[in-house]
Amino acid sequence: MLKQIRKLAMTAFAAIAMAGASTAWAQDPGVADDKIVIGAYGPITTGAAFVGLGGRDGMNLAVEEINAAGGIHGRKLEVIFEDDAFSPAKALAAVKKLVERDQVFMVFGVSGSNPTVGTLEYLKTNEIPGYVSIASAPQVTQPFSRYLFRGGTTEAARYGELYAEFLTQFLQAEKIAILSGNDEFPKNEGDATERLLDEWYGVKPVIRVEFKVGDKDFTPQLLQIKETNPDVMLALGHVTEGAIIVRQARELGLRQPIFGSGAMVDNAMIANAGYDAEGFVGGWLTPLFLDSQHPDMLKFREAWANANPNAPVGRPNVFDLLGYADMHVVAEGLRRAGPELTRESFMDALETLDGWRVSEVATPRTFTDWHHIGNLHMQMMVILGQHWIPLAWDPAHPSEILDEYRKN
User: Whole-structure pTM over 0.85, yes or no?
Assistant: First the structure.
């Protein structure tokens, strides 16, 4: 009888231990037997809605594909999305709501730099994994944080490296004028480009002037630029302002090449600037443009059109592609983390990605335990015959971005 009691006690103890082992991993919020709840935010109202709507719809398409394929170890992805109205204060409130009320597992950002910066300290302090798909603000990855990852966009400093080399080595420009927005992302790109032009090539801009998001008349800035007679003008900001800048520049007699931000490489540039946009050049954040006939892009466009039958003209855009590709990256991290998913195992798993991408519609993503910059690549594009055409150009100057991280 005593042996039976001991055996029963040991069996009960083992069952309790196994139950503890099997449930300990599930204590992180947002993980249930049948689902993983992810929080996301971006602007779907205000003038920057095209950023958040693109990021959200691309992300949702990826979620549909992932769930249709069985989810992640039997769990379906569920996304709760909040509108940040392109406001840092509203972005922070949205993220707090997602974490504290909705109890999400992680936060996926498809907003611009200004709103995103407002959320970073909260995520780090509360040890919540944050994956940033679109914002290029340096604060996402500088200084390094275990909890923050940058996806399809790249470092503001990397934009500076690529722009500086392309302008001076490919376009052979010596006199460069810079017209940049005064919000976070174009200002950072302009600062980085100005610094690298000087450090790498000994070139100082002949002029730098700024504008505000939502401006409609750029005549004063363009007239100042015209007086300097630059070899090329660098216009940094979103396509909404970019198309107006291009059109007004041509109307004022500025015939110099215009190079623009990646956010300006959009069919809306052609639609809104027409033939004034011929020759416009910019950096594109994926290997293939949207009208590519590559099988992977055809497959993406068909799936996107089926999921968004009443989409407005100009969609999908680069933000759809980024949101789509990066949600697949997140899913790969969740998959690699295994059935016993925790925030820690998820971040460990993301750090094993080396050149991973869902298909040719995305640049490869690489993370390590000392840097979380997923992408350092851009494809330069030019408008010819009212189409975006890729340029056969690759940077020759080694990037110094990862060297800085190695030092730290």
Answer: yes
